[in-house]
What does this fold into?
Amino acid sequence: PEANPFLGWRAIRVSLMLKDVFKVQLRAILRASLLKNVQIMFPMISGVEELIQAKRVLEEVKEDLRMEEVPFDEGIKVGAMIEVPSAAMVAEQLAEEVDFFSIGTNDLIQYSIAVDRGNEKIAYLFEPFHPGVLRLVKYIIDAGHSKGIWVGMCGEMSGDPLAAIPLLGFGLDEFSMSPILLPRIKNIIRSVTIEEAKVVAEKIMGMRTAEEIKDHLKGVLDQKFCELPAYEREERKKT
It folds into this structure.
């Protein structure tokens, strides 16, 4: 076993080394693409070269299918999961190669803050509202939009009620979350205009600590009459 599997042989790294397996997977996806609403997203991309290699394999599979006269959606969309800080920092260049981004917040946060969220001793450091994390998220969204692609988000942050308004203000195009979280997030998003969300987002970008940011966002939700989870209301009573 690897000493640190989260920084090891996984995701696109495995795919590019086991190309025969990768091609079988891509072939299956492409054949299913005739059903439409099928897209391809490459995970754990760390830079442009890696993405280009993955796209090259995809093109090889497409050409094989054409030669065999096997139909598939020629216009299938291709995206990249942005979950590695190095990818975030070259997001503008990556955006030139794909049709969309999905920000994988769980890994992006732990890689950015250098914290293993599975380690009980330091799990408290896993903080979605760390100012550095928020700046990275905004940078990725801005980079994607500058090249005309849409940007989505998955991971726990996407379904966090406190994050909904600032993410909307940053310009996030798609929120991906567990169905049970949808009603609350939908209610929050409906409670604000885009301009109001932008004001909130700009305000927190000037704050220096996660606690300051979260306190401000809790106040915003209270003002909007959105229901906070019971545990958050109890925490506010204690302070």
Notes: The chain has a mean pLDDT of 93. The chain has twelve helices and five strands. Residues 77-239 form a domain with the TIM Barrel fold (CATH 3.20.20.60).
